[in-house]
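Key result, reporting period 2: structure in, sequence out.
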């Protein structure tokens, strides 16, 4: 996997502008912050983010993949102000679960998510060499 950084562009913080990869693709559906029993890990964005990322890693493990194989993530949040307020905590959680691997990422604010109380949903695509 190789990060793509056009010359002269400012280096992105916490994500890559592009990724080049070859291998077996693993697609992870949008994961929200609920535990195996389908109960949300907590009412706040950081606790739900921690669980959503852990869920992604668990699904990847089923395919023999790891967090370092993630090439792309799309994050859907219900409140960008809350995301920005909690960005340091979310960054620490990300590094704790995913590590220092920064794939391409998109963050989108949405009006609501399907599950009541859900504040974040994250989908991922991994490329396993």
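The corresponding designed sequence is given below.
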């Amino acid at each position: 996997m190789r990060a793509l950084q056009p010359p002269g562009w400012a280096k992105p913080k916490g994500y890559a502008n592009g990724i080049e990869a070859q291998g077996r693709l693993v697609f992870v559906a949008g994961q929200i912050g609920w535990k195996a029993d389908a109960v949300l890990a907590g009412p706040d964005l950081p606790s739900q983010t921690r669980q959503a990322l852990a869920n992604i890693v668990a699904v990847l493990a089923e395919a023999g993949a790891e967090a370092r194989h993630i090439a792309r993530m799309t994050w859907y949040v219900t409140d960008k102000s809350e995301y920005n307020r909690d960005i340091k905590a979310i960054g620490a959680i990300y590094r704790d679960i995913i590590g220092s691997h920064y794939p391409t990422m998109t963050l989108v604010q949405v009006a609501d998510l399907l599950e009541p109380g859900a504040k974040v949903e994250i989908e991922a695509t991994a490329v396993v060499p």
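The first helix runs from residue 45 to 62. The first strand starts at residue 2 and ends at 4. This case is discussed further under Risks and Mitigation.
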